[in-house]
Amino acid sequence: GLPSRVTVYEVGPRDGLQNEKSTVPTQVKAEFIRRLIDAGLETVETTSFVHPKWVPQLADASELLADLDEAGRSPLRPVLVPNERGLDRAMEAEVEAVAIFGSATETFAQKNLGRSREESVEMFAPVVKRAQDAGMWVRAYVSMCFGDPWEGPVPVDRVADACAELMDLGCDQLSVGDTIGTGTPGHVEALLAALEKRGVGVDRVGVHFHDTYGQALSNTLTALRAGVGVVDASTGGLGGCPYAKSATGNLATEDLVWMLNGAGVETGLDLDKLVATSVWMAEQLGKPSASRVVKALSGA
Ligand code: HMG
Ligand code: MG
What GO molecular function terms would the record report (predicted)? Predict the structure, then answer.
């Protein structure tokens, strides 16, 4: 069966906008986030405190949080931080939740973080410790959980080990990333089972699917049936990773909500407001929303 309620973890302002060619003005980002919250989204990842040269699209993280004010200060408004410098900046902005982001593969650790997997875990350890000591909520992303564009298939046990290693640092929640969207439902079941064996139960797991191969909704349904209650999604299906070859947008929030509404699963979201936000954001970006539901409902 399906859970009666699902938490939609919105990543559009971060995963979505980090991948846009054009840099979106800070005020537009702030309005996007406010509109998402108004549509009922409680958990919204707002931005990243990464190196501004690596991701110039999100170089305005401090200004954005100043603009968001109270709306950015909540355990439900996480930001990405790779290292202690990122955590310092996040703390200055008074955020209350952070997400570290590791990799299941060596190649992607090098491309995304400029260091080996082992070195990146050493980089994350003090970040998690200090964040926890400060009473912050901490999420751990792991990328390339269902395949890597350079290394190909990644064995499920190796992925589960990489995930458990970050959770053992003391993180509150894991997000398993299908960065390039190649995963399929059987693979999702196998990974969740391997995680359970490592002591990471579905109650601490979120799923993060990119829809490159059109598998995101099927994979999500599979995860929900296995007991997962947190689903990452991006309004308008925005997204991708600048350091991952062939990564396209995330599962669109609107498509997820359509499916969950149909199944009678509670999300607390107002689909009409979400669609209006998606259409508005598409205008800002000068390109149509990638969400099928938005296309159908807005006649775009
Ligand atoms: P580095 O160059 O190795 O950093 O970058 P460093 O520690 O050697 O420091 C070099 C300089 O950078 C220093 O300045 C630092 O202060 C500065 P200097 O003393 O030379 O003047 N610096 C910083 N400045 C601002 N903010 C910081 C910061 N850190 C160092 N946080 C680093 C290492 C990890 C920072 C870099 O590789 C980086 O920023 N990577 C981020 C890549 C990224 O954002 N990728 C996208 C997000 S991941 C994703 O999208 C996947 C996900 O969606 C899940 C999925 O789909 O799979 C989450
Ligand atoms: Mg992603």
Answer: lyase activity
Closest CA to 208 of 218, 224, 195, 220: 220
CA 300 to CA 293: how far, in whole Å? 10
Q: HSE-up of 234 (CA within 13 Å, CB side)?
A: 28
Rounded (10°) angle between helices 216-225 and 253-262: 50
Q: Would you state the structure tokens that stand for residue 243, as one six-digit string?
A: 């350091």
φ, ψ (nearest 5 deg) of residue 173? -145, 145
137 backbone dihedrals φ, ψ, rounded to 5°: -85, 135
From CA 18, how far away is CA 59, in angstroms rounded?
10
Tell me what pLDDT residue 270 has: 98
Evaluate whether ipTM surpasses 0.95.
yes
User: Any residues with CB less than 8 A from the CB of 196 and at least 6 apart, and which?
Assistant: 202
pLDDT digits (tens, 9 = 90+) for 207-247: 999 999 999 999 999 999 999 999 999 999 998 877 887 78
Ligand 1: residue of 9, 20, 47, 50 to mutate (most ligand atoms within 8 A of CB) is 50
Which amino acid is it at 146?
F
Contact 15, 206 (CB under 8 A): no
- Nearest 5°: the CA angle 74, 29, 109 is 75
Residues enclosing ligand 1, CB less than 6 A?
15, 18, 48-51, 54-55, 80, 82-83, 85-86, 89, 101, 112-114, 141, 143, 177, 179, 208, 210, 241, 243
**3-state helix, strand and coil shares in percent for the chain, rounded to the nearest 5:** 50, 15, 35
Q: Give the pairing of strands 205-209 and 47-48.
A: unpaired
Burial environment of residue 14 by CB neighbours within 10 A (0 to 12, 13 to 18, 19 or more): buried
